[in-house]
Amino acid sequence: MLVDSFPVGPLQCNCSIIACKETGEAAIIDPGGDPQQIIEAVKRHNLKVKYLLHTHAHFDHVLGSKAVKEATGAQILLHSGDKLLYDNLMKQGQLFGFDVEEPLPVDRYIEDGEEISLGKIKTSVIHTPGHTPGSLCFSLEDKESILFAGDTLFRRSIGRTDLWGGSYEQIINSISDRLFRLDDSTRVIPGHGPDTDIWSERRENPFVGSLA
Ligand SMILES: [Zn+2]
Ligand SMILES: [Zn+2]
Q1: What percent of the chain clears pLDDT 90, i.e. is strictly above it?
Q2: How far is the C-alpha of 55 from the C-alpha of 162, rounded, in Å?
């Protein structure tokens, strides 16, 4: 398993490349900008990108998707709960003062419980509404477990719920009922900022912590 994460785009969204080392099959989680940087990383690792997985459809997680798809032929995957946000990507950009171009159509809507195979590895889809209606986390289990948490769970923080379709009650439930049931050792790569792990968030997250 190969995992390469780096911040991209105007809001420094964490973009992650995940791949099966044996077959070179890969997915990119949140191509949120700087498509040339993403494409160069794909070439450097010599990968075949099958999917662009989106944790949600805020523009800062989608900005690079069009160019990366055009360069790699990968499919755009999203949860249907964020269709409206995706269809209004340009409007989102205007609201935050960024120039956003019309996105390419979604190739397939994915749901809770689905497993997405990349060569000999697979990532499971966890629906965690709250930050947006269609927010997803992707969990990868190999020698170590990794959760790509999007803007649902951050190090000692949680995603904002005051934007369109957000719900504070839902995000708290998503984190405590779904994410905090994962193994304590699971490493968490959030949508922005530094890594964390389930164990320390269960104890120290001021929004949903102390549930241990
Ligand atoms: Zn977001
Ligand atoms: Zn974000």
Answers
A1: 96
A2: 18
In the chain the domains, ranked by start, together with CATH numbers, are 2-204 (3.60.15.10)
CA distances from 49 to 23, 41, 65, 108 (A): 11, 11, 12, 15
Ligand (nearest to CA of 32):
2
Give residue 151 CA to ligand 2 midpoint distance, Å.
Answer: 6
What token pair was written down for 193?
């900022």
Residues 172-204 pLDDT 10s: 999 999 999 999 999 999 999 999 999 999 999
Collect all residues with Cβ–Cβ distance below 8 Å to 100 and sequence separation of at least 6: 59, 63, 89, 90, 92, 93, 94
Tell me the whole-structure pTM to 2 decimals. Answer: 0.96
| Ligand minimally distant from the alpha carbon of residue 171 | 1
Burial, 36: exposed, middle or buried (Cβ in 10 Å; 0-12, 13-18, 19+)?
exposed
For residue 77, the model assigns a pLDDT of: 98
For the CA of 193, the nearest ligand: 2
